[in-house]
Structure formats: structure tokens, C-alpha cells
Amino acid sequence: MKKFLYLIALSAFFASCKKAELDLQPFNQIETASAFTTQTDVTLAINGMYNGLRTNNYVNGNWNIIADVMADNVIVSSLGRQTLTFFGDWRYNADNTLGFFQTGYSINRRANAILENIEAFPAGAFKDNTKGEALALRAMVYLDMVRTYSKTFENASATDSTMAYITTTDAKILPSKESVKGFYNKVISDLTTALPLIGANNGVGRFNKAVVSGLLSRAYLYTGDFANCITASNAALGTTPVLPNIADFPKIWTDDTNNGVLLKVLNTTLDNVNTLGVNYFQIVGGLIKSEYVVEYNLNKKYLSNDVRTSSYIQTSLFNGVLQNHIVKYRSRSGAGVAGVVDAKVLRTAEVLLNRAEAYQRSGFDLNALADLNLLKSNRYTGFTNIVGLAGPALLAEILAERRLELAFESDRFWDLKRRNQPVVRDPNFGDRADGTGVKYIFTNLAAGDYRFQIPFPSTEVNFNKAFTQNPGY
Amino acid sequence: MRKLVTMLLCVILAITQLAAQSRTVKGKVTDEKGNGVPQASVLVKGTTVGTTTLNDGTYSIAVPSTAKILVVSSLNFASQEITIGTKSEVNVFLQSNSQNLEEVVVVGYGTQKKTNSTASTVKIGGDKLSDKPFASIDQMLQGAAAGVQSTASTGQPGANQQIRIRGIGSFSLGASQPLFVIDGVIMNGGDLSNGNGGGFNINPSTNVLATLNSDDVESVSILKDAAATSIYGSRGGNGVILITTKSGKVGKTQFRLSTDLGINSVILPPKAGRPIRADDWFNLLKEGLTNNGASAATINTTMASYGYGNGVDIDWFDLITRKGTQQQVNLSASGGDAKTKFFLSGGYFKQQGTTLGTDLTRFTGNVKITHTATDRLSFTTKITVGDVVQNSALASNGPSGGGGFFGNPGYVSLVLRPTQNPYNADGTYNISSNNLGFPAHYNPLYVAANDKRYLKALSILGGETVEYKILSGLKFTSNLGIQYNANEEYQFNNQFHGDGSGSAGSALSIYTRNFLWSWYNQLDYHIDINRSKRFYADVKAGYEVTKNSRLQQQSAAQGFPPKLDLYSSENAATSTTGQQFSSDYAFTGAYSTASFSYDDRFNLYGSFRRDGSSRFGSNNPFGNFWSVGTSWNVSNENFLKSSTVISNLKLRASYGTNGNAEIGNYAWRPQYGFGYNYNGIAGGTFNVIGNTDLTWEQNKQTDIGIELGLFKNRVSITADYYKRTTNGSLLSQQLSRTTGFTGVINNLGNLQNKGIELSLTVIPVQTKNFSWTVNFNYSHNKNQVTKLPSGDQFNPQSGSYLLREGQDFYSYYTRAWAGVNPDTGSPQWYTDSTRSAVTTTFAAAKLFLVGKSASPTDFGSLGNTFTFKNFTCSFDFYYNYGNYVAENYFRFFTDGSFPTRGKYTFMLDRWQKKGDITNVPIYKYGDATNGATGSDRLFFKGDYVRLRNIQFGYQLSDKNVLAKLHLTALSFYVRGTNLWTKVYDPNATSDPEQGVQGFSNQSVAPSSSVTVGLNLGF
């Protein structure tokens, strides 16, 4: 009977600790109310926001290759895994589209959360800088999204619509679309608001004044506002642009220098995110096994005295086949892990090319030529300045240099689209270094084709009736 | 002192009397079936002279000449007094206690007389569960009971079996599984390996029940209606499966050895779905290039680059499959006396899968001891240990698209061209990266030989039950159970070829531990309301606490030395991940039932439970659940008692509420989470919107049943109608993707399942030497989504289905295929749901509900057993129809959009010239019509009949032979499993059994097996 009493007593004990038993806290999370109370909390949130840039489908995902795959810079390697061929063949549809849409909005939600919560903090440099970073990051992501999914500013009519420009963390919204022009204007507005707020130096891997100016340069180029593009570019580049020089240029790609890089998204060896490289290649048995190799005609444009040639391209055997592999994301120097490098998101060279184009297209050929010469002198050994080049020929030369400089960096397709150009691929050459091998099957995307606008995911279009699909899908 | 002397004298007197005047009485004690009753007590009335019967029920006793009456008694039997007279042989026939005469059903927190039951339950005896060539007991439930759908989504040995009781009651895949209760303890069921946040799974499917030896199981009871499941409150909503393990039986220790040995063979896919061979493939390539306008020169160089004329012709499916061995050995000992009973067992099970690299090996040990300390107090201790090693093929069974892994043997057997030679000229594996080698999809033979992908699982079930009879009729029970499960998973992708070649070999190690304890304390009270004991009540009240803590550690490494044997990650150069994840849950519940029974005619039952859980939002922490049930044993009424036709008739009805709490451990909490690091510094973000109102899914179920026995139960029929309504089922409330989220979890959707179940057992022939038994069951279920928060939305399990009010849960949403244009060979679709116009432009075809579902409308089984003397022959068919299977990877093997891959055999029927009437479009290299995607062309009918089991057995009954062999029982058998399958749709490309979601993902193909077995008792 005694034993039985013990049992009863024990079970009574259990019955009494009921409520406490049920209050189990997660191990990796805190309650939202306590998330934004101190400056340290804000710093954590800023890190979380930058972390978002690294998520799939953006700068550490396929962003660094997609604009090359869809254009004419690369050709799929027949020895590779045939990744992204649906995009290379322009065969995407609303059910099978880029995931950047969802990713972009989820990154910007992090920025919006900071912007909503920072208001409660006391005025001062910390608050201003934080706001500046969040606004600028949001604008950059939206600019890339609008480049991807919609017509460009100059090609869009007043009624052409694009995504909604979301600036809230309210999860109940069901937004309507924004006009393309209105969307671009909001990007520029965010950047111009950020510019006076943000600090000049926030350390490597974060936004600062020069980055914001550089992004403005990019945005104004897309809106065709050349005067503002020049102003913004001037602010980003300073009086003596660091491009950097021929000796330092290769170090950009091994992360040995930050010269010439306005914004990079950091990817430490410990983070070990190798997707940047894996988009292009794997190392198999010490050899480069490419997914995509340099297109034959483009490869010929990289001259032997061009420092970019060896920084971007390696001609080597894989499986007994000589190919032009893309090594821009090969690894850091030393014991670097294959494919693990920082993502270079904005470089001075791009800003300089933006300015050169803006100068030329607003009639300042001499300034444009000076910028072109400045870039070329920092790329070609034994370069002597070009003189007398002007007009359309000069513009063509600037754009040719732009293609060479920004190849394999997610510019080409958007740039062709911006200028309302077609994608024209040469059907005569294949994936081998000598131009033989497997050739393009899909060779032409006419200027203005609806497929220049990547379809919105059907999940959003089906759910949110106000969010109509891009024409053609 | 005087007393002592007197006593001593008496004893001496008695002994001398015995010695002088005793005589021997012999006999046999039997039960109503004529079987000997072992360990029965045979006592001379009024004395202490007595003995117990032997195992065969015989006894021999020296009785004093004065003896007149023997008292024979045994547990579970009514005791008998027999006048012996002068007889020297007295055979005694014992009748079971009326309490035990009737079948007992296992119900929640106890047992119940079947006649008193008001619930719809099915009990499957251990004899139906032992010696089957299945790794886990849930696989044996296929066709075993009406209303229970048990289906496999992969042929991987040890994989999780998907079970649905009375339809789909939850929107999420995992939550629709029933609750598993082993020996009274609510367990973690299903797949306890990685599956963390839907991430990559090393072992695509594992099953915690595969750690349990089905030979250790006494019975499985399936609780279906509210009167049976509501006692499990917030967790009983999707049905409950009670597993009771074996206990010792009183008597001489019985040893049982059972062993079988056999061969597993792969079930070939239907003809349309087999890969084509080299000649056909080259014909397609040539035709495809021609149709794409390629020049003759291009065609020739392309053909040559794929090895045209080399004579290589590989049947990849044949290469990635094999004959596997099947073996098990089980040894058990059972016995005990009136005080202590024990059951001990050990088992070994080995199943070699028919796909390369798949197998399962299990060792089990089991001890259960029951001790009756006093006539009031007894306790039972149980420990069951299972150790499993499962080797898996790289594949996924989910809708995640994981089936497309380049190392998945099932997938690559179709993707690879028949012109790719797996071997080099010297016999080594070909891993070169040119068109004749394996540049993209890997050589599956090399991968199977050199990669590792395994689970090592250790499961321990422990239980301690104490019963104390406080008063007559009042019993206290305390039951403490633990479930400890440790899963070590490891993957090594070799450094030379395959997924690891890009990183000089890569390894992933995942350790997952779940520790669950559950304790209930309960009072059972039996009250006789009238004197005749024909009107009584059983009342139960208890309190239960369950807590589980889960821990997972993950580490990854890469950069291996070039030695294939050194696959352990300690050899790797770089460690890339090393993290720990934890997650807990807890439940408390107070429960009570009352059951009234009058004259074995009228029964009334009620239950109530109040549950709380850490998973319920702070606004809704506790819930109440109840049920009522009633039954009327019409056959016990006077007007039927004398009926020669109707031997049993019972009508029952029940209604009640219960819930489903498979919510996600912290899903309700609005959260700010970490791990969003940047530049090596910690970072965080709001990552869970949360919902403080979040609560269980509520089920309401009505059940009406009839149990009918005819002609002395030669025909018995059980039929049920049920209507199960689920309210507030968890559904992600869709959000605009512009919020950065896809949705927020909420109690939003309503579902309804209505159906009928029919079970029939007929014994058409029963003679002394021959009997024939037919078992048939049939289930029909109609599922409907009855409420959605904001109109149509995609099914959270996959965008292949659309949820719409009034439609089946798994309704496919896609374009409707309209065949091939006979003039051009172009694929065609109907433009919309009116199916009035066709288009050859994919984008012009609207998606709509095409009227096809992944859920079968009807399924069941038909079994026959013939017994002739000592021979038995039985065969069981399982049938399933009314559903459609979607081929998720169709586009890769169909038409020309992936022209360099292997193709399905049905591609030979492609359109070739104007006027061709076919369902397969023109073959064009780099086809961009989307003909092979996004339409119901990808579906085939899931109707099939399978010979699930066929068995021939022989049981030796000659006692003399057995005695000479020193055995008490001997039987042997030959058994075939899944030997024959009839697939009705000629367009089927894979086996139609593909899990509840009906997705064919090129997962491990199913197998058939032939085993021979031997059972010995001694």
C-alpha cells in the first residue's frame, strides 16, 4: 500500500507542473518583441540583411551567370551538366522561372524591417547610416529585379507595368503593380534619400556613399538620364578613379585587393559558399569542368595584351578536349577553395563605362573618349590613347569595351535589353576552343521579344489577381 | 509447543495414509476446442493434494482413497468440480470464463470486450504479421483492413510507408499519418531521420517502425472512428494504430525458431516506361536533328560524337538492378508461472534491395517480464531494442524534385543513353566526360560501388507498467514509456566521379536523436449496477504527460585524399559545416471514459479528454475533445437467440470530436531567428510570422456500423459508413510573394471524408480435413475540400494540385492534353476547361482542374485460404483504382526537349508523317513546344491489382514424429510476395504504387520476393 501511495504522490506532482511543461522555447529564435531594442540588435539585423544578398538566386546564386547564359557571351559546354539550359534556350515559363522574384522581396523585407524599427532610435550618425544602408540595399535589389522582369525605362510605355515597390513588412498586403517608370523613379528616390544619410566608410562588404553614387550611376544610365548619370559617376569615382591598374587587376578576382571594387558581398572561406564558381565550373581531377565556356567570337576579342584575358579565361583540356574556361570565380589565392570568392557587385570600371556612355550620348565625345582611354590604359599593356574617335563609332567602342570588361558578371543580357538590341548568336561555332563542338541550337532573340521580360512566378500571379503576368506568357 | 507437536503428528498421519491408501488418477484437461490446457491446477477437494497439467493438458495424480471430487481450475477458465468415483481416468473439459469467452479488443488505454465495444476498430493478429519479407509492420497493413490505405512511395528497403485512415484529413503530408501507439505509449512514428526543414535527405526515406521486429508483435489494432480515437484527444484525428508486443504465457517454456530465406527481384516497369535501346535511340536522334533542320554534315558529326556505329547497346535498367537476397531468423522463448511470465526474443532480418546500393539489416532484442508481486500488485517491464543499418540509393520520394539527382540510379537508368558504355575496354568503370562517357549524369555503377549513403539507427523502447488493485473492481495503473531513437546518417560522394568530384570528395554526417518519455496514471473502476452483474459500468480516468526532445548534429567535409577506402570525414581536408539543431515538444492530457453495458445487449460509451501542448498558440493552449458511442447486440435479444441463420448482429453508432496536433513545434510563435550571418558575424531577421491563435485541427466524425454473422459465423460481415469533417486544418494562408513570405500557417481549411467500408469473411467449406476461407475487404472514400480561406489555392504539398472547394484534395491542376495534330505532329492542348477548342501553343492553353486525382476512389483486398489436412495454401490480392499517377520527370525521357537523354519506349510511336494518328508528337531535337511538360499527358491511371501474397505451407501434426524430433511444432512454407501485378493503363510508365501523392519520381523500383521458411517449436 505504501508503494501505491508513493505512486499517487508522484503523479500528483506531475499534474501540478502542467503549464510550465508546455512553455517550450525554440533554440534558435527569440521573441519578436525583444529583437530591436539596442544598437547591437540593429547591427545583427544589418548583418541579416546583407546575408540576404547571398541567398539563392541572387549574387551568390545564379545572378553572376544568368545574363551571360541568356545572351551571347557563353555557350553551354557539352562536357558539363547542362545546367540552366532552359534559360539559355529562352524556354522559361511562369511555372519554371527565375526564383529571384521571391528572393528579392524577402531580402527587401529585411531592409524594410530595419527601416520601420530604426525610427524609434535617437537621431544621429548611427541612425542615419543604418537608414542609408537599408534604403540603398533595397534600391539595388529592386533595380536588379526590374531589369530582370520588366521592360527598361526607356523602352517602356507609360502604361507598361512592373512589380510593386514594397516598403513595408506588413504581411497582409495584396499590392497592385507599379508602372515601370514609376518603379525606376522610386529606385532613384531611395538612392538619393540614402546618399546624404549613409557614411563614407562602413568597411568592406557594406554600402557607403561611393556605392550609393555608383548605383545611382547605373540607375540613371537605365533611365537615360545622362546628366545625372555623369554627376553620380563623378561622385562614385572621385577625381582619380582606381580601376585598378594592370598589375592589380588580377588581384580583384583572387580577393587580394578591393581596389576597383565599390561593393562586394563577402563570402568567407568559412562560409564556403561555392555557388559563384559552381555556376561556371567544377574541378574534377584537378581540371576545370565547365558548365559554360566562352563563346568563340567573344574569345577572339580578348587580346593577348589585355590583362582581362588571363584573369577571365583559361584555355585548357578537359577530358581531352580543349576549351575556353571562365576562371573569373576560380578561387582565392593560396589555398583557396574552388569557386569560393566574394561576389563583386559593383566595380569602378562599370561606373566609368556608364559615364563614358552617358558623356557620348549627351554629346560630350571628348570626355567619353577620355574615359574609354582611361579604362583601356588600365587593361591593355602597351596601350596608346585613341584619338579622334567620335560619334556612333565611339559609342560602339565603349559598348564593346563594356562587354569585355563586364562579361561573366551578369550584365550582357540586361544591357542588350536596355539598348533594345537582339541577342544574336553565331550558329557556326561550338563549345571547343577551336570553335568546333556542340553549337547553339537557339540562336536568335529578336529585339523587343517578350522573352526579354522574365515571367513572374505563377504562384504570385495566380494568388494576387492585381498582379498581372508579363505579356506573352 | 503442544500445537507444533499436534501439527507434526497430523502431517505424519496424512503422509502415512497417503502412502498406504492412495491410488492414481490420470486424465487430460481440454478447452472447448479440444486443445490440452497446460498448467491447469488439479486439486483433491478439501485437501492440499494436487498437481498441475503438463503442456499437452495431461495429468497424473495420486489421490487418497477417500478422495471423491477433483477441483480443476486454470487461468481464464471457469473452475470445474468432477466426481471421480472409482474411475482411474478422468478427462476434464474446461469452459472459458464468460469474460474471456469473447474476443477482446485493444482500445486506447486498455482493452474492452468486443461485445461491449461501440467503436469501429480492426484487430490484426500477430500470426498475420510474422515471417513476412517486409522490413516494417506498416507494410503488412496494405489490404489488411478496410479504410486503411497503406502505400509505398519507394522500393527502398526500410522506407516509410504512407498510411491514411479514412482519407486525407490534413493538408500537410506528414500530418495526415495516423498516430502510432506501442504498448500504450504514444510514439514518434514515421521518418525520424534528417528531413530537417525539407533539406537534402541522405536517406530519402526511413521508417522508425523498421526498427521493430514484427515477430515480436502480438497484435495491431486500428482505431478508426471517434468512439475509438477521441480518447487520444488532440492527436487522434487521423486515426490511431495500436501495436501490442508479445507477452509471456504461463506454462512450460516454449521456444520458437522461425527462419526464412529468399530472393528479391525487381518489378519491371510497364513496357511503355522502359528505356529504348541504341538503334532506336540513334534513329530518334537522326530524325530529331532532321526535323530541326540540321544539315547532313551536322547530323553525321553529332551521331558520331554519340558513338554511332560503336555497337554499344546498354540496358541501363537491367544494369542498375539485381537479384537481392532476403533472410530472417527469429528465436523466442516464452513461459512463466502464476507469478512471473516472460517473453524473450532475438531477431535478424536482412533485405537486399533490387536496386544497386540498397539494403537493410536489422538486429532486434526484446524482453518483457510480468511479475505479480501480490494479488493486488503486478508490474511489467519491457525493453525492446532494434538496430538497423540501411543503405540507400540517392533518390527522393517527395515532390521536391529530388528524384532528378544525377546519382539516382532509377533516374539515370532512363536519362543515360543506351550508347554510353559503363565499362572501359579493360573492364574498369568508364567515368570519362565525353559524349561516350558520363559528363553530366554519372555512371551509376561507379557511384553505387564507391559512394556511401547509409543510416544506422538504434531504437530502444522501454516500458514500466504497475497495476494495483485498490479494491475489487478498482484498479490503478501507472505506465511509463520511453522511446529512444538515434539515427546516424552518413553520405560520402567519392572524389573521382559524381557529386563529390567537384570538391575532391565530400561527406555529410547527420546525427539525429529523439528521446521521448510518456507517463500516464490511470484509475479503472468496474461497477456492477445490478446484482445479477448484467448491468455494469467501466469508468476510467487518467492523466498523461508526453515530452520529446530532438537533437541533430550535422557536419560536412570535403577535400579527401585520393583513396576510396578513406571515406570517413576525419580524412578530409576541410570541414565545412558543424552545427547542432534542437527542438522539443510536450503534451499533457487529462482523460476519462465511461462505458455502460446492459445485459450484453445495450452499450453506451462516452469519452472526454482535455489536452494541452507546447505546439498550441498562447491564445489557445487547451482543447476539449469528446465522443459518444452506442451499440446494440441484436443477436442477444430473445427474438434472435434461436435464429439458425443470424448468429451475430450488432448495430453501432458513434460521434465525437478529436484533433490533429502535427503542427510543427514552434510554428505558432512569431520569431526573430538567427543564423543569417555575414562576414563571419552573427546576424538575424524576422523569419516566422507566427500565429498565436494556432491550434489543433479539429475532426468531427460520425460512424454507423453493422456487424453481422450468419450460419454460425460462417459468414461474417462488417460494414461501416463514416463521415469525417476536419475543421481548421492547418494551411498556409497564402500571402503575396511581395511580402517576402509565401504564407503564414493558420487553421483555415476544412476537409471532409465520407466513405464506406466493407469486410467480409466467408467459410464456404469447412470439413474435418478441408476448409476454405475467403476474406474480402473494400474501401470507398470520397474526399472533398469544403472550405478555403480565399478561394482556390495551390495544394501546399505541391503546385500540381489545386485546392478548390468541393473538389478532391489531390485534384490535379494542369493543361488538358488534346493529342497530336495528325497533319503536323504538333502537340495540342485544349485551350480551357470547356475542351471545345485546341491549340498548339502551350501558353495559349489554360490550366484547370482536369478531373483527375491522386487519391484512389476504391481499394481493398481479396484473400483465399485453403487448408487440407496439414497443408495450407493462401493467396491475397490487393486492388486499387480510381487514381492517377503523375510522372514528374516525364519531360526528360519524352520528346526532343532533352534530346541527348535516354527515351521511353513509347517514343517509338511518335508522329512521323502526315496522317499519322498517335499520341506522341513529332520528335524534334531541342523541342521547345513544352509538349512533355505541364499537361495531363504526364498522367496515367493508377488502377492495378497485385498478388500481394501467395503461400503454400505444411504443418506437421503427428505427435509421435514431433516427439522423436524433440519438437512441439514444425511447419514450413514457400511464400511469394508481389509476384504478379496487373496494370490497366497501357500508357503507364512506372509501377502504379507511388505513395499517396501519386508522383512517380524514378525512386527505387518495387520488388517481388520468393521465400522459403521454417518454423520450429520446442
Summarize, please.
The complex is a heterodimer of chains A (473) and B (1018). Chain A is mainly alpha-helical and 473 residues long. Helices cover 45% and strands 10% of the residues of chain A.
Task: Give an account of the 3D structure.
- The complex is a heterodimer of chains A (473) and B (1018).
- Chain A is mainly alpha-helical.
- Chain A has helices at 2-16, 18-22, 39-53, 63-69, 85-88, 100-118, 125-149, 180-197, 209-223, 226-237, 249-253, 275-278, 296-301, 307-312, 348-361, 365-377, 391-406, 412-418, 458-463; strands at 29-31, 74-76, 161-162, 178-179, 261-265, 281-284, 287-290, 292-294, 313-318, 321-326, 343-347, 423-424, 444-445.
- The longest helix of chain A has 25 residues, at 125-149.
- Chain A is globular and about 80 Å long.
- In chain A, 52% of the residues are buried.
- Chain B has 1018 residues and is mainly beta.
- Chain B has three domains: 22-90, Immunoglobulin-like (Sandwich); 100-245, TonB-dependent receptor, plug domain (Ferric Hydroxamate Uptake Protein, Chain A, domain 1, Beta Complex), CATH 2.170.130.10; 251-265 and 324-892 and 939-1017, TonB-dependent receptor, beta-barrel domain (Maltoporin, Chain A, Beta Barrel).
- Chain B has a 22-stranded antiparallel beta barrel.
- Chain B is globular and about 115 Å long.
- Chain B starts with a helix and ends with a strand.
- At the A-B interface, helix 1, helix 2, strand 1, helix 3 and helix 6 of A face helix 5, strand 22, strand 25, strand 26 and strand 30 of B.
